Backbone:
């Protein structure tokens, strides 16, 4: 995630993060961290790779690694509990 800017709100508003854009789905559970996810992506985008079928079966077929659901991401952010603003 990259924080691009903080927009001032009126005093009564409770600030909540909003996702404006994104890339790819989240990695499958237990993929092995960033290096494991990189390997996973290399394999699932190369049908001739010897581990291709194994990874597709493990992750569930079809794998839509390039899809990003902006609405789903913002729904998740909206359901999260954020700290209330304290008056000083």
Residues:
């Amino acid at each position: 995630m990259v924080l691009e800017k903080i927009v001032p709100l009126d005093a009564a508003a409770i600030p909540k993060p909003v996702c404006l854009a994104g890339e790819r789905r989240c990695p499958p559970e237990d993929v092995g961290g960033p290096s494991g996810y990189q390997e996973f992506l290399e394999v699932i985008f190369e049908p001739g790779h010897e581990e291709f079928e194994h990874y597709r079966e493990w992750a569930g077929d079809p794998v839509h690694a390039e899809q990003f659901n902006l609405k789903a991401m913002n729904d998740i952010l909206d359901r999260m509990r954020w700290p209330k603003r304290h008056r000083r």
Remarks:
- The helical segments are 33-44, 52-59, 70-79.
